[in-house]
Amino acid sequence: MLSYLKKDEGFAMHKAIKIPGKLLKGYKVMAPELFKLYITEIGHFPKAGEDSHEEKKGCRDNILIYCVNGVGHLILGDRKYELHGNEYIVIPATDKYIRYWADQKNPWSVYWIYFTGPTIEAFNKALKLDVLNQPLLIHFNEKGLELWTKIYDTLNQSLCFEHICNANFCLYHLLATFLFPQRHNHGVGDDRDIITPTINFMRRNINKKLSVEDMSASLHISASHFAYIFKKATGSSPIDYFNQLKMQRACQLLFQGNDKIKTVASDLGYGDPFYFSRMFKQYIGSSPGQYRISSKHGV
To answer: One Pfam match, by short name (predicted)?
Structure first.
């Protein structure tokens, strides 16, 4: 077995493979044209518990993180995010501080892969991969997980030149299933035509109160049918998902700034700061004030 346990990095007892830098360097010298984009690490952490990973000086590789269920937390520079089931993010190579970890109450199951190349900056620019990008919702990416498994199994069998090249070629296909999901997740196109614009609509109106009727009106479908499709695709009702987005935004505002709680509440469409605080504790597990203190101290 070529996989190993990265106990020193907080992910004890979970499978991961890291390709030795010296080996990659030799292969790149031998055939540089085949290493325009290549994998450096890959791993999967089911129910990660209290594990965490930290890159204090950033990372020269891109990092794809895919949460299949549960909740995970991510700090990227001065921004903080939550990842829920069927959300992913591609963190581009950066010198900004990175830390990600599992939620204590509902730990995520997460797949990740590190990759880079000599033109990674141009690659990221062409695909508009930016450190300011937020986690994105995706329909359950069955094809992506099939490709992840193929890559992992290939590397786990051998780190010979042919196996690494095969894994790297699969990497392009894997990334495409996330970046262009409508081309790969067949049979869910109609749902995605509804879900994606709805979530974009929610994000644009994060400072307002929205009803299911508000969300379905622009789609020209009934509120009941819209609610059924949305919950089937995301696992949450439209209002519950909207509240999750509001609480995620609240976490960012509390972590990044020093505005009063009532100001944060108002910015998110809550006229009553006490009601906002109750909602926040319901979704996050602590009061806004407690969250601000603990998040800024890395608790």
So the answer is: AraC_binding
